């Protein structure tokens, strides 16, 4: 599945970064409850899964994500491979790269991607 098949590209800059991609990668930050131990993906259709990124590779401005097959139903997706072209300024792509690396390296080892080359 390519990004353009699923949703229109809506990236307008760093302040709207979570909107541009079919899934928004966010760190759970539930204070005082202890749930801040993995990443969360949310699809354009509000499907949600935790710790489901198997691989994430960012080459230039192309992000390729492979998801765990068992998460596809929760994410409301039929394909576990997503490719997105980030059409943004070079400094925004660099900042995204830095933040994504931190998000994917965060939390419990058992839910981190087996490959994260960002």
Features:
118 residues, 4-stranded mixed beta sheet, 3 helices, disordered N terminus
Give a verbal description of the structure.
The protein is an alpha+beta fold. The protein has 3 helices and 7 strands, in the order H-E-E-E-E-E-H-E-H-E. A 4-stranded mixed sheet has the order 6-5-4-7, with helices on one face. Strand 2 and strand 3 form a beta hairpin. The model is unreliable at 1-35 (pLDDT under 50).
Topology:
Elements: H1 3-6, E1 24-27, E2 39-42, E3 48-50, E4 53-59, E5 62-67, H2 72-75, E6 81-85, H3 90-105, E7 115-117
Radius of gyration: 13 Å
> What topology, given as strand order, has the largest sheet?
6-5-4-7
Number of structurally distinct domains: 1
The structure class reads alpha+beta
Helix content: 10-25%
Largest sheet: 4 strands, mixed
Report the average pLDDT across residues: 74
Helix count, DSSP H or I runs of 4 or more residues:
3
- Strand elements, count: 7
Please report the distance between the alpha carbons of the first and last residues.
Answer: 20 Å
Brief overview, please?
This protein is an alpha+beta fold and 118 residues long. The protein is built from 3 helices and 7 strands.
């Amino acid at each position: 599945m390519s990004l353009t098949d699923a949703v229109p590209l809506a990236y307008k800059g760093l302040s709207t970064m979570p909107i541009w991609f079919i899934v928004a990668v966010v760190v759970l930050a539930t204070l005082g409850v202890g749930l801040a131990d993995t990443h969360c993906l949310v699809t354009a259709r509000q499907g949600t899964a935790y710790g489901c990124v198997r691989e994430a590779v960012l080459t230039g401005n192309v992000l390729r994500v492979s998801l765990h097959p068992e998460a596809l139903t929760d994410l409301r997706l039929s394909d576990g491979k997503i490719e997105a072209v980030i059409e943004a300024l070079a400094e925004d792509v660099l900042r995204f790269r830095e933040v994504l690396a931190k998000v994917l390296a965060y939390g419990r080892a058992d839910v981190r991607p087996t490959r994260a080359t960002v």
